[in-house]
Amino acid sequence: MTRKLVFITGNKNKLVEVQAxxxxxxxxxxxxxxxxxxxxxxxxxxxxxxxxxxxELVGGPCITEDTALAFHALGGLPGPYIKDFMKxxxxxxxxxxxxxxxxxxxxxxxxFAYSAGPGETPQLFVxxxxxxxxxxxxxxxxxxxxxxxxxxxxxxxxxxxPVFKNTISHRFKALTKLVDFLKTLPE
Length: 187
Ligand SMILES: O=c1nc[nH]c2c1ncn2[C@H]1C[C@H](O)[C@@H](COP(=O)(O)OP(=O)(O)OP(=O)(O)O)O1
Ligand SMILES: [Mg+2]
Description:
The chain is built from five helices and seven strands.
């Protein structure tokens, strides 16, 4: 039976990837384009709080997702604050931040959260993909895709066939964990 999930996100590119990945698991995604306020804290704290607020807003079960980009040379920053960094300093700024540091290594971290409804503690599912920050290569329409070269591929996420990105990405890895969890719930 096809399962339906309500996904609260203001990001159309995320939605496209989530729908493509979950279609393979026979899960239909109903999107609500709400921009949920995000607190400061660890990626886990930000993710759990975002989902708690989303469940209150929609009044039922839902999923949310928070994406972080952790630079190894900077102790994991910008982490969950990558969106503000992108907006403020852009692709070249992300490269410039690492000038003089011995490693350009970065971890893309995706944290999905599932809440069974208002007042229900969100369950978290984390996926990570290793890579490094490189000068822009490929289309620039999705966040930092064009400056993140995934380890072992020689390609930035932006250069890749989207179908391939969806088999190695932080998002794919987190979603497989969410799918395993959903299988334990009644239909
Ligand atoms: O696979 C990705 N490849 C490249 N860039 C990405 C990816 N996934 C998220 N991103 C960007 C979007 C935003 O600049 C930041 C995460 O912030 P984040 O708060 O999780 O996303 P968002 O505010 O755009 O949407 P949402 O309404 O789901 O919170 O990293
Ligand atoms: Mg956000």
